[in-house]
Amino acid sequence: MSIFVHCAFSVSLMRTGSARGRLHRSGGPAVGRLVTSEVIADDQELVRVGFTMILERAGLSVVGQAADGVEAVEVALATEPDVVLMDVRMPRLDGIEATRRLLVRRPAVRVLMLTTFDLDDYVYSAARRVPAVSC
């Protein structure tokens, strides 16, 4: 699986508090840690469920899921997540165009592009269509 990170976002930002996020104060393993909110966009339900389980076990908050690019933009605009995990190839609207549309309306969101394709040239050339955003 290739991962293209649209905008640099590291775990160290979550630890230092310099990323937008919320301090988790309720009980459980994430007490006192900064928690980011995520939307997961992938056309395969099993992938969405799997990422949700992994992220929530790590103390992160999955605030929405989307099965295609159109839904990804709608869910991300409605929930205002810190990070969107976006599959490159999805029905109705691909992840690259969904990311472009999302960033026009909400430039502060961080998008991690995910793909299982070994076609790095496709991912890099497609990523050039996404507007640059300062982090």
Note down, in words, how this protein is organized.
- There is one protein chain.
- A five-stranded mixed beta sheet has the order 1-7-6-4-5, sandwiched between helices.
- The chain is 36% helix and 22% strand.
- α2 links the parallel β4 and β5.
- The chain starts with a strand and ends in an 8-residue tail after the last helix.
- It has five helices and seven strands.
List the defining traits of the structure above.
about 140 residues, alpha/beta, Rossmann fold, 5-stranded mixed sheet, two-stranded antiparallel sheet, 5 helices, about 35% helix, about 20% strand, disordered N terminus
Strand order of the largest sheet: 1-7-6-4-5
CATH homologous superfamily label:
Response regulator
Tally of domains: 1
* N- to C-terminal distance: 24 Å
What string gives the helices and strands in order?
Answer: EHEEEHEHEHEH
Q: What is the average per-residue confidence, as pLDDT, rounded to a whole number?
A: 75
Strand content: 15-25%
Counting copies of identical and different chains, the oligomeric state is: single chain
**CATH topology assignment:** Rossmann fold
The description of the largest β-sheet is: 5 strands, mixed
Query: In one word, what is the shape?
Result: globular
